[in-house]
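Same chain as my last thread, 195 residues:
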Amino acid sequence: MFSRISMRALSFGQSPAKDDLFARLERGEPAAVGELYDAHHEALRAFAGRLLGDESAAEDLVHEVFVRLPSAISRFRGDSSLRTFLMGIAVNHARHFVRSAQRKRQAMAKLAREPIPRNDSPDQNAERTRILHALQRAMDTLPIDQRVAFTLCDVEECSAAEAARITGAPEATMRTRLHHARKKLRTALEQEGVR
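reply #2:
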């Protein structure tokens, strides 16, 4: 049976240098957090952007994850990759950011109703923008747990088992949330004329 530290080393890549990085993270060394940030921030920001639908809020969420990392690292058991662990922290902190992103989109939608000068953009770009806005509005109607399930499974292409590990929910629950999310999104998009 592997010890807790050797399991952590395996998840970091079986390297003494990586094991040292873990020890430095546990001590809260800013340089260790910086190394981890350099290695994972782009993937985490992409995930957060898809989860929240707002790049500014996604960047804030990524910042929050790395600020919280030194206190959260003690919960890392080594039974998943560190990137998966970081995504789990992001999911746990996403509720505040989802509410904030929804408020921003509502304000932007109100602003969008104001008359603006016409620009001659191609029809394809206009249709793409319409679909994107429809999807963002539909995502805003989902409860956070269904939004997380949809983003992890359909956007990030995680399996239901991986998504369950990230969120701490049972795999069957994750599949149920994903089913309901897809159904609600399909209905909402059809009502907006998107097929």
